[in-house]
Amino acid sequence: MTQQGFVEKLVSGGDGLVRDDGLVVFVPGVLPGEKILYRPGPIRKGFSRGTLLEVLVSSEDRREPPCPLYGECGGCDFMHLSDLAQQKAKTRLVQEAFRRLGKKEIALPELVAGPPWGYRARIQLHKDHPGASAGFKARGSDRTIPVTYCAVAAPGFSPLLAGGGAGLPVGRTNVFAVGNEVWIEGKDPFVTLTLAGKPLVSALDGFFQSNLILLPLLIQEVLESLPRSGTKVLDLYGGSGLFGAFLADRFETVVEVEQNPAALALARKNVVGPFHEFYPTSLEAWVGHQNQRVTQKLDAIVVDPPRTGLSSEVTNYLGRGSVPRLTYVSCNPDTLARDTRTLETLGWSMTGLKLFDFYPQTTHIEAVARFVRL
Question: 335-353, pLDDT tens digit by residue?
Fold first, then answer.
């Protein structure tokens, strides 16, 4: 450690991990094999978070970020890696999550990648006052950075961004673009699009996956993990019925459970058929009213939880009965690994794991895990 409190260190661990006299320090933006200068932060729960000051010896995977706002804009945090290195790093991050939290060794999972640029069909723009240009929030701050071009945004956003977001209201606005068509929250309450041949309706102020290029492949993976036909399937955390719309082609009854009533109202439009069931309640409340006889009648279960993963009430429910297949769609490797460990103690076995690089230039990753009942 230098007199200024800085530390010079050769990084030999995983991405962003530095071992300093036995202490694990997470330094964002650091790659294995690099020699760095960093400032350590306070120690909490046995590890510390450091601030990268300078890269003294660079990894061959490092590149000069092609966006001039990188590091200031809060959107991207992996742009300093080459595209291929990002993909390799994400598979390692998932493998490490299973080792650390799942207490399970897995092979490096397959990753499905799409275009690294121009993929994002949904963005949030911010405007601080009527005369301001629209932009994104700064990293770690509520300050808005004016943005006239974004390399990860779909091309349809280009005229709106180049014009400084003219016509957008003050505050945060959700905007959706498919081809040259743009939907703006407030002006357009809903967006209607065709996905894998199926028309779907989503709310501008609700959640919908942003990568429409890879989304059909993820849906296909979910469908391939399930029976080709059946009587009843659960679509838990069903949202506006993205998966349920396709499950309805295979199962007589799709049970949609979603606590957001506005999203569930859209699911009633997207999941077409006379025998489907819709429950506007939290999953914890719903499973509290179920019994073992209900689970025994099911052909399969699909869960797509938030980043916090499955609660104990939900995993306990999934451990009951004799449903043969479970498909877990995840946006957080840590909670997926943790929940896999719990599910396997309850009689499930993970038989497949595939990753989808929905958000290149960021550390985020989507995953589909397949489970069968032992």
Answer: 999 999 999 999 999 999 9
Amino acid making up residue 272: V
Question: Please, are residues 186 and 193 in contact by the beta-carbon 8 Å criterion?
Answer: no
How confident is the model at residue 10, as a pLDDT? 59
Residue 83 falls inside a structural domain: no
Q: How far apart are CA 78 and CA 260, in angstroms?
A: 32
| Contact criterion met (CB below 8 Å) for 103 and 343 | no
Nearest alpha carbon to residue 26 among 3, 2, 4, 43: 43
Provide the 3-class DSSP secondary structure of residue 146. Answer: strand
Indicate the angle between helix axes 333-345 and 83-100, nearest 10 degrees.
40
**Domain hosting residue 18, numbered range:** 7-57
Distance separating alpha carbons of residues 207 and 225, to the nearest angstrom: 24
- Please name the residue that has the structure tokens 């990002």: 86
Cα gap 106→345, rounded to integer Å: 17
Name the active-site residue from 73, 76, 150, 331. Answer: 331
Q: Which of 203, 229, 257 is the last residue of a domain?
A: 203
The sign of the torsion formed by the CA atoms of 222, 223, 227, 230 equals: positive
Instruction: Look at residues 210, 120, 135 and name the one whose alpha carbon lies nearest to residue 170.
Output: 135
On whether the CB atoms of residues 87 and 111 are closer than 8 A, the answer is yes
- Closest by Cα among 132, 136, 159, 160 to 147: 136
Looking at the DSSP bridge assignments, the partners of residue 254 are 233
CATH number at residue 22: 2.40.50.140
Average pLDDT across the chain, whole number: 91
| Spatial contact of 80 and 60, defined as CB atoms under 8 Å apart | no
Q: Is 331 a catalytic residue?
A: yes
What is the pTM (predicted TM-score) of this model?
Answer: 0.91
**DSSP type of residue 169:** P
Q: Are residues 177 and 225 in the same domain?
A: no
